[in-house]
Design goal:
Order of helices and strands: EHEHEEEHEEHEHEEHEEEEEEEEHEEEH
Number of strands: 21
Number of helices: 8
Helix content: 25-40%
Structural class: alpha+beta
Strand content: 25-35%
Shape: elongated
Largest sheet: 8 strands, mixed
Mean pLDDT: 90
Distance between the termini: 22 Å
Length: 322
């Protein structure tokens, strides 16, 4: 089997890079073991113009947003499934933020109907600000449906990639029965052990999130108050997330769950139940700078470490890297 590119990993980096290569009419094969602990699979997947803690406009937001909307709307048409929707954020945690002029155009007072909603559903003591437009990417659905498309085209292999099976020369790579011009690693947190790019300024952290059943809470908004509630499915909300740098496993953090449930009980007037507790391992780089590398002598590259704003920045970066 012959192809131009062999892509390792099908998180948001591998998915959008392979989509851009397809747009450029390049051939590729994707290999992934479908790890359920992938950070892309468990992310909130929100595109938000405002860095909430500082009340400032996210760096290069409008340039990234233009590429993101073009990419996700293109994927939506290509896959014929919902990929992105506009979804305002109701921010309860804005009292100390110094609002910058560049961010002001995205910040609005809530209207009477929205005020009735928050009064009926939440306990709060500060003013609530609406951030608009913001967007939700259906991340899990996007990754799943893109993978289904590649499987139908017979260019996706569901298996653990074994570096020991890789044969390299200056002109090509051979993996089992596949010969490619270049191999591109988009392997998420596993990149910390990649033998071809040692000494990266790269570490791992883990994040926990809860899936909550909250009947009666409108799914027309994202809600933010230190923790975030993001519509997930009928009456279900994604709730997260934390950052744990020192960890030995990916078992659910029961202490974080207890603390989060306590915060929710102080914030939510509505009854809720915890339906699931999910954990992911994240790749993190120094200064949250993405990893976009081409090996000096071998036909190897890496596209990784997209960080907390990955669903915003990945489309433009994937296009540039492709």
């Amino acid at each position: 089997m012959q192809t131009e590119y062999l892509i390792i990993g099908s998180g948001i980096a591998g998915t959008l890079l392979s989509y851009e290569l397809l747009q450029q009419k390049k051939s590729f094969i994707v290999i992934d073991d479908d790890s359920i602990t992938s950070s892309s699979n468990t992310a909130g997947a929100i595109i938000n113009p405002v860095t909430i803690k500082q009340g400032t406009l996210a760096k290069d937001y409008e340039r990234y947003l233009a590429a993101a909307l073009e990419c996700y709307n293109g994927l939506q048409s290509f896959l014929n499934v919902p990929v992105i929707r506009e979804l305002p954020i109701l921010n309860f945690n804005n009292s100390s933020a110094e609002k910058s002029p560049s961010a002001n155009k995205y910040l609005f007072d809530i209207n009477r109907e929205e005020n009735d909603l928050v009064d009926g559903c939440f306990y709060y003591s500060t003013s609530v600000i609406k951030i608009l437009p913001a967007y939700q990417v259906y991340g899990q659905s996007l990754l799943l449906n893109w993978k289904k498309k590649l499987i139908l085209e017979e260019i996706f292999l569901r298996e653990h990639f074994d570096t020991n099976e890789l044969i390299l020369s200056e002109q090509a790579v051979v993996y089992k029965n596949i010969k490619a011009r270049k191999i591109i690693f988009c392997e998420g947190a596993a990149a910390i052990a990649n033998p071809f790019f040692p000494n990266l300024h790269f570490t791992k952290n883990r994040g926990d999130a809860l899936l909550l059943y909250i009947p009666g809470l409108s799914q027309s908004f994202i809600y933010h108050n230190k923790i975030r509630l993001v519509p997930y499915a009928e009456s279900l909300f994604w709730c997260g997330s934390n950052y744990t740098w020192d960890f030995a496993n990916l078992d659910p953090d029961t202490l974080w769950r207890k603390q989060t449930v306590g915060l929710l009980q102080q914030w939510l007037k509505l009854p809720f139940t915890v339906e699931n507790h999910i954990v992911a391992e994240r790749p993190t780089t120094a200064g949250q700078k993405p990893i976009m590398l081409i090996h000096e002598t071998l036909p190897i590259a890496m596209f990784n470490g997209l960080g907390t704003k990955g669903f915003l920045t990945a489309p433009l970066l994937a296009r540039q890297f492709a």
